Fold:
Amino acid sequence: MDPSFDDVWAEWEDLFAQARKTLGTLKTPQPPHVVQTSVNALFRTTHTLKGMAGMLGFPSFSRAAHRMEDIFDLMRKGRLRSTDSLIETLESGIQALESGLAGLRRGRPEPEDYLRGLRRQLGELEALARPSEGGTQDLTSLLDLPPEVLKGLSDYERTRVTAVLLAGTPIHGLAVCLDFATFDERLRALSEAAAASGELISTLPWEVPEGREGLAFLLLVAAPSVEDQALGIPAEEFIGTRRLADPERVPASVRAAAAAPAPEPPPPESGPEPAPASAPIPDMEVLRLPAQRVEALEARLMEVAQLRDSVSQIMRQGSGAGQERPLGIMGEMEAGLLEVQKSLLQMRMVKVESLFSRIEPMVKTLSRDTGKPVRLAFYGGDLELERNLLGRLTEPFLHLIRNSLDHGLETPSERAAQGKSESGSLRISASQRGRNLRFDLRDDGRGFDLARIEARGIAMGLLKEGQVHTPERLHRLTLEPGFSTQEQASEISGRGVGMDVVRAEIEGLGGEIQISSEPRRGSLVRLTLPLSRAVISCLKVRSGGQTFGIPLGSVVRVQASAVPLHGGDRVEVLGMKLPMESLQACLAQPEPPGGQRLVVVLRQQGASSANGVEIALGVDEVAGRTELLLRSLPELAHAQGIMGGSLQGEGILWVLDPEAVMGLAMDSLMRRVARV
Structure:
């Protein structure tokens, strides 16, 4: 696709992200004005998508966005009420459009109908919202306003007046007189304040009181009450406020007729307590920059940082009076440069939650299509990944989730026969391991059928009969192109494609994929992806005359000992006896003969205290904490236990890989036991 479209794709991605976030506010009970604000935002988003697709020559996409826009229009006019089933259909529609966007970016031809799988649901919604033969009700005449003012209301505003009165909410009029010079800014501020306390239905011109100058406006606000002091209106701007329409004045026959037509969907299953009402999502100003410009700035900043490190090292080597002030300035420069580097890095990053929000409706749809209820849980959504990874991970996750639900999880009857709960479990977690981002997809289904995989591999000529094949080899066989144990393809998976797509995409990103499973207990798919840059917080330690950084996320405790400790000793930490190994021994360096009196307790990331692995690491000195930009240095390609380095005033600070160091420590302790 033409690179000139890059800005367009980025804008569309932002629109879809905003749509998913806004739909999320409708999943829990909200005040009417919050619901209306969210629906209005979704209407504008789909309207923008429709227009952009039309201008770029994607007619099918434009038609699909237009149909979604119509549904949101029916909601904002009060002809469709927000329910769980409606939100699920809307999520599926947004997901279908977003998947279509991914296809357009890859140069795929447009389908005839992006919403083909939702035709029945959308048709039912449109039929449900269709007005009866008697036409739609209009209650604007109940507003205590002159007829010439009522004529200024649009059809949409009349619809909202009727809807809020039928919902039992009174409508108030707030009259203000604003200065000519600042009326636009003040009106915007007052509108936002009014919308926060209720639904702002309309802003109408109003008569300026005698003896005052400026422009007068009447704000129609649907809310239980409206107080000028609560809205922060100065006395010189305030004209007055009064109730313009009371729901009690709606005729009983009209209320009864309005309550009858739309059948309520079945109530949702019992779940967690409703979340507190959230505020309307504000519009966010997005600044777009070419990636090349950011990369050039980063490269230049890196050069400046290297100069800073060189100057700092020279100054520290030159001892003598008069160095304190220059060293202080250098310290301030270091802190400032790190902040700029962090800001640049954050410009490239998005929260993992953005990926999770794309997955959730996907799982719901597959759960419904397969007839397998699923308990879905996400962990690590606050972590960040580079924006370019986000779009490339969606399709691999789709294939993995299809496999899990179609092949992994059993039907409710099968699970009940095995003593499991009828609802399957799918847990998707993200964790950062130094410069790597790890995703774990874990289900509690039947696991991989290794015997069947082996037989299929032999039949396809991928394995030799009579040889012993390890579980690792058999699991990786499922990643081969065209490999499938299914005799017939289902509508969801089993076509011989999917897992090889996952492997190709993950390896194309420089990552790796690992698969493991246990019969009847489930399976685990682990994706490990490198981050090109990472800012991490470290504990600085010294050992053997060298300075190291240990990521704080893996540090449980720092503890001093009254007596020297040697590798192989056991240390009591918070009532537990932990094995101790010297950091120098872990890195294949001579252990200090006099022992060490400081230990840093490490725990494997992501593990709880009940099942986590902990070990005490002996060091010579603890030099405090630091925050640094981790760089991948070529000479570290084969250095065990090191994940990267950072240039510091005293030289290079080597950053340890906690998981690798714990493995090295356990190996060293095992060798000690073997020598005894």
